[in-house]
Amino acid sequence: SQQGEEDPQALSIQEGENATMNCSYKTSINNLQWYRQNSGRGLVHLILIRSNEREKHSGRLRVTLDTSKKSSSLLITASRAADTASYFCATDAGLGLVFGQGTRLTINP
Amino acid sequence: DAGVIQSPRHEVTEMGQEVTLRCKPISGHNSLFWYRQTMMRGLELLIYFNNNVPIDDSGMPEDRFSAKMPNASFSTLKIQPSEPRDSAVYFCASRDRVAGELFFGEGSRLTVL
After folding, report:
1. Do B55 and A95 touch (CB under 8 A)?
2. pLDDT digits over B29-68, tens only?
């Protein structure tokens, strides 16, 4: 069963704009991870944030975690056409990673 | 490193046939996961192994599904007999430490007619 739920399900923006995706989950976690999936490919890990962390950066990516609200957000700044993909959050509660349904992001040139 | 290797990449079979999907994790990784991805249900965790031992198989849909990991470098997911509703992309992933990131293979796309 999915624990994480992403919002929105689909997002279409212009190149250069920022993209924000949200994830909500239900139970206590050890960490939360974000992955990217290009069409027809496997998932690729983007960033991991531990339960005692509130914010993390990696290049153009910024992730926040609010354990009191059981939610996380992924911000991609200065988007590029190559960022077009599906993005998934995944929660780790000690019994394997549980993925949400994902957000389909389309960057229009 | 070659990454997680899955085979076959594509399989088309008829209902009732046995299907075997294979996975070679990254060398040195001690945890292996099998996921199934469909449009309707998203990514579902089927089973995961730690040090070749199955830890949680509660996601395996039914007795038609079985998974083995005879050694640290090989795992199989078997469906017998296959049904059209088993059509999906099956992913294998591995990691080298608890609570770390997963490394995914490119998936095996199964179509059961």
Report:
1. yes
2. 999 999 999 999 999 999 999 999 999 898 998 899 999 9
Report CA torsion sign: B30, A63, A83, A6. Answer: positive
Three-state secondary structure call for residue A14:
strand
Interatomic CA distance for residues A43 and B109, integer angstroms = 14
Pair B39, B85: CB distance under 8 Å: no
Nearest to residue A3, comparing CAs of A104, A106, A108, A101?
A101
Q: Which of B108, B4, B96 is nearest to B50 (CA)?
A: B96
Q: Do A42 and B42 touch (CB under 8 A)?
A: no
Digit-coded pLDDT (tens) for B62-88: 899 999 999 999 999 999 999 999 999
* Cβ contacts from A onto B, under 8 A: 52
For the residues of B24-44, what is the DSSP string, one character each?
EPPTT--EEEEEEEETTTEEE
